[in-house]
Amino acid sequence: MKQRQQELAQRKEEALAVIEREPILVVPGKITFLAHALVVPSNDPEECMRYDADVEATAVRIARAHEEALGATVIDVSTAERAVSY
After folding, report:
1. Within 13 A of 44's CA, how many CA atoms are on the CB side?
2. Type and span of the H or E element at 53
3. DSSP code of 78?
4. Over the stretch 30-81, which tens digit does the pLDDT of each residue have?
5. Calpha distance 75→63 (Å, rounded)
6. Contact 72, 15 (CB under 8 A)
7. Around Cβ 73, how many Cβ atoms within 10 Å?
8. How many domains is the chain partitioned into structurally?
């Protein structure tokens, strides 16, 4: 377990070093517009029936646990109120 913790600490240090170097690697250049995307909930009644809030909550919980186990700091911005408070 201690070895795993040390490995994770090393990975974190390496990731932070990369993030700290990134701004000096950004060079302004020509901008090319690719696309706009608007994502809205479906109005299809059959698709709406398939949506299950419990399944969604379980999926979010599993994804969050996975990311936190990898050392990520997870911030829940799943609602407008949570996003604004961040």
Report:
1. 5
2. helix 53-69
3. S
4. 988 888 888 787 888 887 777 777 788 888 899 999 999 999 998 888 777 8
5. 12
6. no
7. 6
8. 1
